[in-house]
Amino acid sequence: MFTRKLGRSGIEISAMGLGCWAIGGPFWDQGGWMGYGAVDDAESIRALRRALDLGITFFDVSDVYGCGHAERVMAEAFGSRTREVVIAAKFGYTFDEEKRAVTGRDVSPTAIRKACEGSLRRLQREYLDLYQLHLHDLSLDEALTVRNTLDELVSEGKIRWYSWCTEDPERISAFAAGSRSIAAPQLVNVLEHNASLLKVAEDLNLAAIARRPLGMGLLTGKFTSATSFPETDMRTRFKWNLRDGKQAGMLARLERLKELLTADGRTLAQGCIGWVWARSPVTIPIPGFKTVAQVEENVRSLRLGPLEAEHMPEIASCS
User: Fold this and answer.
1) DSSP result, 115-170
2) Any alpha helices (H) in the chain, and if so which ranges?
3) The CATH number of the domain where 53 resides is what?
4) How far is CA 253 from its chain centroid?
5) Which domain holds residue 275?
6) pLDDT for 189-219, tens place per residue?
7) What is the pTM of this model?
8) Which of 98, 155, 264, 297 is paired with 35 by a 20 to 30 Å CA distance?
9) Residue 297, Cβ neighbours under 10 Å: how many?
């Protein structure tokens, strides 16, 4: 099994994790749907268990995904095997779990503690391995106040490590001064990434937890100009345009890269995951999923490993 360290924590995990947003199902936020449309909980549970059987040990979730639903599905899937997995949870949003609707944002000490207890209860865990501040746009002063509360939760055994989900190198560097800060979650895929932020992660030995390594599905090659999405899929809310919009341009760029990414027999998705690993030794891609088949295809990437370094300059020049 191809493994990587979870930043300076020293925790060894599968080099690929799974992002658990999609399995939370749709939820309402500020006048529109979030999530990736309807889900089948039974299939989600089978997919999570299959991932664990295949060696995946790292799972990324937020309490707001499905307004608590993703965490509950994970708990049912892992059951007594929960100690076999490393879970990265997130906090910052408030929500009505019954209505599956976001109600606001709150990172006061009281709210953070309430959110932590809620995640522990839904996940049926005694502690969270990694607890992540989900609000990317807080001021640095606000975030450092949050960090004080997180340090208290570490002392109490409720969490082990923490990080901040922000795309700003200065914010990441400052937050990483905390003794238990181990990660710099960020957008990393073959068409989109922040080189400066990735360098900060490398310099500070932080895990670059790579969100959207498959570009919200676009980099799998399954979409065409005729693809549409249901109303409850946030790609509809965000006005994805595969015919002549931004996403159409990304599809064209992907087409130029397809031969390079699949040259050694990988599927396009596997090639894109291999690129994330090859881009930096600290990256940990966390592709999303809804089905067992998606999990199995992506997990096969672990046997193939990173793309060959010699191919990376050519891919950069074509992208």
Assistant:
1) HHHHHHHHHT-S-EEEEEE--TT--HHHHHHHHHHHHHHHHTTSEEEEEE--S-HH
2) 41-53, 69-78, 109-123, 140-155, 169-175, 195-204, 234-237, 246-261, 268-279, 292-299, 301-304, 312-318
3) 3.20.20.100
4) 23
5) 3-318
6) 999 999 999 999 999 999 999 999 999 999 9
7) 0.98
8) 297
9) 18
